[in-house]
Amino acid sequence: MTAAPPDVKSLKKWEDAFQYPIPQVRQLERQLQTELSSNKMKLRGLVGESYRDLLQTAERIIDMDASAQKAERNLAETSRSCNSRLLDKKARNLKIFEERVGAGDRKKYIFASQLAVLQNCPSVISRLLPNSKGDSCLLATKVFVVSRLLLKSLSQQGPIPLLNSLKVQIAALRSFLLQHIDTLLSTPYLPIEQLVPALSSFSLSKTSSCADVLRHFLFVRSTAISSILAELSVPSAEAILKALLLFNQTLQNAQGLFPKTLSESLLQLKSQSLLQDPGLLSLAELGLDSNGRWLPEQVREFIPWVRHDDLERSRVVEQGKSWAAKELEVLNTAFEKSLQGIEDIRELVTLRGNILGLWRAGRKGRREFLQKGERFRDLATARLAEVLGAKIDGLVAVGRELGELLKGVDGESKDYSISLWSSSLSSMGLANGGSAFKEAVQSCVLGRDSPVKAFGKKHEKWLSSIADSATVIRGLKAPSASSAEDEDDFDAEEERIQEGIEDAVYVEKKIGESLDTAYSNLQEVVGELVERLETSEAKEPNKENATMMRAAFLLRAIRQIRQNPPKRDDDSLIALSWFGTILVPRLHALVAISVGKKSFVSVKRLLEDRKWSGKLASKTLWEGTPPLPVQPSPLVFKFLHDLATDMHKVGDDVWTPMAVKCIKGRASKHLWQALEGVLEDREIVEATITNGSTNNAQPKEPKPEPEPEPENQPEHAPKTNGNAENSDDSEHPNHETEHKEADTNEASGNKSNGASEPTADVKLNRRDDNYSRKVIGKDWAIQLLFDTLYLDEALLRKGANAGNSGITSLAGKVESAVGTELGFDEELRRRLEGGAREYWKRTCLLFALLS
């Protein structure tokens, strides 16, 4: 293994390196060469950096030498130039030159300089005026004053052809300058630092004092406000806000600028001559650096003369108050016109908020000039109430639509009479959550046919507009975004919130009053429709179906109106429990007149044609000791079934408890009249059955009676149904034949039973027939008593809550007659009542609408 080379630093001289073996010497050589290369590179880097520094130092030394030589030359030249004797010599030479050489041309130089400056003035003014800044306008005014001075100076030197043309140009520029100043003064958003130069421009151009400037400033702002409001025949909301902003800024400017700020600006104009103004000297077109010294002394030394101390603060306040009162009345009038052109509630509320916010924002600026006189809030609130009242009055259109729809309703409207169990409903698709199916079910249950749906859409549209408007009005109570000024002033913020609450309460009160009036008018419209139906029913009794359906339509419309009052969110704006309460009973009466009319006629004929002296076939079904009837006769069932069927045709939703009570009362009245006509002057006799033959016990000798009317003579109809029943009788002459099958066991019972008995039938001749019209058998009387008690349960009485009625009176009459003649006691009567009550409980569901 090769030993490590010696340390180079330990060697004293180069010969010591060769004392080691050759491999170690070679390693030592390589080590030395490596270190030598490394040191060489380091040295080269150090030398390069130092070289660059040396070069820069050399260049800096050369520059310093050149600067020093230049400074020495300048000092030498300055020293020579500052020689007083040399300067005196130059001054003497210049004076001699001017006296000998330039004296003849001085006037020419003065004239040429004035004319040169004057010729350039129009172009300079035309260039400066289009700028919308106040300082540019003031500079243009200064140029105009210089041009006016030069015109005056040149006019004194005799006629000059070019001067007339320049006069025309300067005169035109004067009007253009004044118009531009008025435009700047009427700009709403012109900052104060630009408005002051514009006011100074007017004062400088017309040599006006501070008082004149204030007067002109207020006049320009008044003209600007009027022009903004007069752009359209009806001022827009933007115009109102722009005019109000200009109104606020005018008072704010009057408070901040007059008289102190404007006086200081005018005083600054008088502090130096006009041609010493830096702005004029900077205009290269005028060439004042070369032409200025040749201008006449009265031009060069001209100082503007304007009064700056003739306006006091009290006078500013007085003029501001007068101006503010006049312009505020103009704004009130314009705002009122603008409100009259707006029909949208949201737009009105937005405009109200904007204009009141802008009015509050300018409170500090007008505090010194104006305290009251603003009617923006009152006008906006009144207009809101007026627009809402007009929207609410749209309910009259709903009433007219109701009348138009009523004309199209006839007796064939049966869109809702489809059964809930029909195949058309069960096979209906359930897409979109079954909306179509639910709508069809609701139409069936609530009787929503095409006219009712059309009215519902019209009514819902009106309700939606009222609900949206009421929601917007409620938004007045909610705190709105306040301005920075309101955030700093807690009293102002509280006042703003309180104003919103008060206005909302006022408008809501007006909404309630308008809704009360509108629904009262709608009730009057519906009342007129009801009166027409009543009149048409009395004049045209043959159209009772159309009258019935129209009355049902009005009942549904009234129900829809009462169940859907105007709402805001979930709160009702008005209670409508009173609506239609005086009309609903009349409509129920109209429906009841037509419903069951055929049933009334049918039961009356069957009662008249019944063989009351014959055998009662259903007596075999009697129960108890002694036997008593336990179920009514088929005629009663048929009557109740037909009545319930007719009620269903009108629509199940029509039959509220009040309507059912009405139809039951009418049915009771008709049955009472029919039974009273049948039982009138009849005597109850005993009828016994022996060996299949009927032995009629002869009653006591009756009093002579008039001859009976012919059979084909029409019956007397009840007073309440008059012509309607007579017409129905005439239309159905074979009504008895149609209903014989339904009353087979009663009307034909004697014949069928008599044919089956071995004994001979009792043959009645005409005299016997007349006799049977004057009597009624005991069995028939008892069955009739049970029928009347059953009908009383069905039509009037409700179990224990029994009440007196026509049928109850009839039952009492029959009971009295049977008890007097045949020994009918109190116990049997109670049995009949209990049987009728229990049987009605078992069968009431067969006549659902009547139960």
TrEMBL record:
<dbReference type="GO" id="GO:0000139">
    <property type="term" value="C:Golgi membrane"/>
</dbReference>
<keyword id="KW-0653">Protein transport</keyword>
<keyword id="KW-0333">Golgi apparatus</keyword>
<keyword id="KW-0813">Transport</keyword>
<dbReference type="GO" id="GO:0015031">
    <property type="term" value="P:protein transport"/>
</dbReference>
<comment type="similarity">
    <text>Belongs to the COG1 family.</text>
</comment>
<feature type="compositionally biased region" description="Polar residues">
    <location>
        <begin position="745"/>
        <end position="756"/>
    </location>
</feature>
<dbReference type="GO" id="GO:0006891">
    <property type="term" value="P:intra-Golgi vesicle-mediated transport"/>
</dbReference>
<keyword id="KW-0472">Membrane</keyword>
<dbReference type="Pfam" id="PF08700">
    <property type="entry name" value="VPS51_Exo84_N"/>
</dbReference>
<feature type="region of interest" description="Disordered">
    <location>
        <begin position="689"/>
        <end position="765"/>
    </location>
</feature>
<protein>
    <recommendedName>
        <fullName>Conserved oligomeric Golgi complex subunit 1</fullName>
    </recommendedName>
</protein>
<feature type="compositionally biased region" description="Basic and acidic residues">
    <location>
        <begin position="729"/>
        <end position="743"/>
    </location>
</feature>
<dbReference type="InterPro" id="IPR033370">
    <property type="entry name" value="COG1"/>
</dbReference>
<dbReference type="GO" id="GO:0017119">
    <property type="term" value="C:Golgi transport complex"/>
</dbReference>
